[in-house]
Amino acid sequence: MPTKKELLATTIEHVDITQHNVIPLVEAMSKMSYSSRDLARAASIYDRMLRDQDCAVILCLAGSLINAGLKKVFVEMIRNNMVDAIVSTGANIVDQDFFEALGFRHYVADERLKAGTEDTMLLDHGIDRIYDTLIDEEELRICDDTTKQIADALEPRAYSSREFIIAMGAYLEKHGCKTPDSIVYEAYKKQVPIFCPAFSDCSAGFGLVAHQAERGDRPRVSIDSVKDFLEITRFKISQKETGLFMIGGGVPKNFAQDITVAADILGAEATMHKYAVQITVADVRDGALSGSTLKEANSWGKVDTAYEQMVYCEATIATPLIVGYAYHKGGWRSRAARQGNQILEAVPAR
Ligand SMILES: NC(=O)c1ccc[n+]([C@@H]2O[C@H](COP(=O)([O-])OP(=O)(O)OC[C@H]3O[C@@H](n4cnc5c(N)ncnc54)[C@H](O)[C@@H]3O)[C@@H](O)[C@H]2O)c1
Question: Does some domain include residue 5?
Fold first, then answer.
């Protein structure tokens, strides 16, 4: 039986879009057919979003993207004003990004482990598997516990996930961020709001469960998902136009799309999302949200139809091409940081 050290020997390395100029490749793909042309059109729509000075870009992250080597793509987006707000699963933000910011890594699983026949052996070693990627469960428990420590140190009240993630950024500022590239820490410094609408469904959930159980009837920290919805709706209302860049489907896609309707309910004159791009492997057959087209979203009053593009592709392939294209095109150079956290903190809660 291999040792734990042998199993966790090779780290996942994050792709660096700044080092690969993919413009000629994506332009060549625009003259091809099928998914290549769709991907190239999505890249040009994202570039167009960045050149539209009135448009705030909302990035949606589903699935398990950070452990897969996409972290630095999103960090470069934050650093270079290519994104103004993020809606994500907790897994991406806490279990994977914050986890790496605490100094831990994700590991390449040997090819034979993908079959799943050796998962009991992995369990015995305390190793978790995400398809072809491995994680040390003991290190993940430290991540859970760190979120408990953060909750323990906060004033007991209800927080939006955005507010709690700011506290995670402040923790990294105080204790040191152990990686050069962290979404949580970069967003903290650039005042980019991050929302995790199902925040308890990740490593932070374990920390918060332990925090609340320990507090018992005493005042405690809780997460208010309605506050999340209100805050991101206020962010939408504060912007003239918005564009969605969605990676995967799930809760982040619906949450970000729904803010147009929530703005309407609040009586604000907010527009539909002017631009929308989605990368997904889901299709329309099951009627579920992840594969529903952006044209369908138009029937709900959420997405405009002039600049929308579905890309049916696995995200680790499509994301570096689309973001890399827009990065090297440089449309972001004339964009200012919107500092959404400042905007939200300036609005009195009602
Ligand atoms: N390993 C994990 O994924 C993990 C770990 C801890 C917690 N969680 C929690 O599980 C919940 C489920 O997350 P979800 O709602 O995003 O569901 P999900 O992970 O099933 O993703 C939703 C849909 O997005 C699309 N998608 C996901 N990854 C993709 C990819 N790489 N390329 C293309 N399309 C892709 C698929 O169509 C998928 O059905 C979240 O609350 C998360 O925090 C997940």
Answer: no
Domain extent for 48: 15-345
Query: From CA 141, how far away is CA 95, in angstroms rounded?
Result: 10
Residue 8 belongs to some domain of the structure: no
Find the mean pLDDT for residues 240-262: 96
349 pLDDT higher than 80 = no
Strand partners of residue 162: none
Question: Does 3 fall in a domain?
Answer: no
Task: Report the residue among 15, 61, 73, 89 best suited for mutation to probe ligand 1: largest number of ligand atoms under 8 A from its CB.
Answer: 89
SS3 270: coil
Nearest residue by C-alpha to atom 35 in ligand 1: 248
Distance 108 CA to ligand 1 centre (A): 19
> How many domains, the chain?
1
CA 102 to chain centre: 18
| Per-residue model confidence (pLDDT) at position 350 | 47
260-288 in b/e form (b: 16+ CB < 10 A) is bebbeeeeeebebbbbbbbbbebeeeeee
Burial class (CB in 10 A: 0-12, 13-18, 19+), 129: middle
Q: pLDDT tens for residues 162-197?
A: 999 999 999 999 999 999 999 999 999 999 999 999
